[in-house]
Amino acid sequence: MLLLKCEEDLLLLEKELETHIPLSLKVYGSLSKIRQGNPFHQEILVDSWPNFNAVLVRPQQKEENSNSDMYMNSYVYYFKDPTSVPGSFIGAIDWSQAFEVQGLQCFLGEVLLNEARLRHTRTEMTTLITFHQDKESCIPIPCPSGGEDVEISPLKPSHAELVDKTWTFGGSDCSLHYVRTCIKTSPSRCCVTRYSERAISWALTDQYEAIRMAYTLPEYRCKGYARCIVSSLADVLRQDGRPVYCHVEDQNEPSQTLFRSLGFTELTGGKLLWFHSKPDTKY
Predict the structure, then answer these.
(1) How many other CB atoms are there within 10 angstroms of residue 79's CB atom?
(2) Which of 31, 76, 247, 283 lies 20 to 30 Å from 39 when distance is taken between CA atoms?
(3) 20/26 Cα distance (integer angstroms)
């Protein structure tokens, strides 16, 4: 795999990937973050250039992330031709660390599982529904009906512990660092009570520019705060010329209903493959 560093090459790749949205969404979003200062310390590899088939985004090799930090040891991929996976692609993943791999082409799951068996590494794999909102389907930002005196603002680093505590995959030093990095470097929105500056509902975006971690405190649910926050964040992304998308678990029907009510539609054939390893547990 070849490392792309030249700004001109990165711009050409970004324009090419844009023509392959939605399947290239994860890599496209990563490349955008890299060109915005690279706050997540990622790098882009291709199997050949300029006529490429495979693109892999991975952590910069000079970065010394924790071996247990799955959140920062994150990879995303895109293939023009999914029937051809170069051997160098699998070799570009550091299997000695805890890591995750994400992409909207689920065929790679079997390739990764086979490699994990050869390496005797325990892994977990699942798929999530991908929702996308285009310009024509967006709706005006709805007003919450909770009656609270609130304002909409970006999340602050001081909110990181609360967001991490309520996140399904939070609760560790690595996850807290990841949440704090997302808040500091990427668009987010929250409803904050004016009298206490307490965040009661929020959503943020990650290193792939996907909306995630949408959450409302239990006592404020069913009052429209989540619809307001997600719609406001989607508007920020859209005004910046970015795609608006997210991933939802199959069993999370409330979130699916939320996004559909805001004009998001499910991408046919665009499920997210989420594969992650735990190299400290062998079999």
Answers:
(1) 24
(2) 247
(3) 11
177-202 confidence digits (pLDDT tens): 999 999 999 999 999 998 888 899 99
Contacts by 182-187, CB closer than 8 A, 24 or more apart: 182/206, 182/207, 182/213, 183/154, 183/155, 183/156, 183/157, 183/159, 184/39, 184/157, 185/33, 185/37, 185/39, 185/40, 186/33, 186/39, 187/154, 187/233, 187/236, 187/237, 187/240
How many secondary structure helices (H) and strands (E) does the chain include?
8, 13
Omega within 30 of 0 (cis) for the link into 279 = no
pLDDT in tens, 16-73: 999 999 999 999 999 999 999 999 999 999 999 999 999 999 999 876 667 789 999 9
Q: Is the alpha carbon torsion for 84, 90, 93, 98 positive or negative?
A: positive
Contact 45, 1 (CB under 8 A): yes
Please identify which residue in the block is written with the tokens 């991975």.
Answer: 58
Q: How many CB atoms lie within 10 A of CB 126?
A: 13
Rounded-to-10 torsion of CA 116, 177, 104, 5: -90
Alpha-carbon distance of 239 to 3, in angstroms, equals 31
DSSP-derived secondary structure for 110-133? HHHHHHHHHTTEEEEEEEEEEEEE
* Amino acid at the residue 280: D
Residue among 214, 212, 213, 227 at smallest CA distance from 261: 227
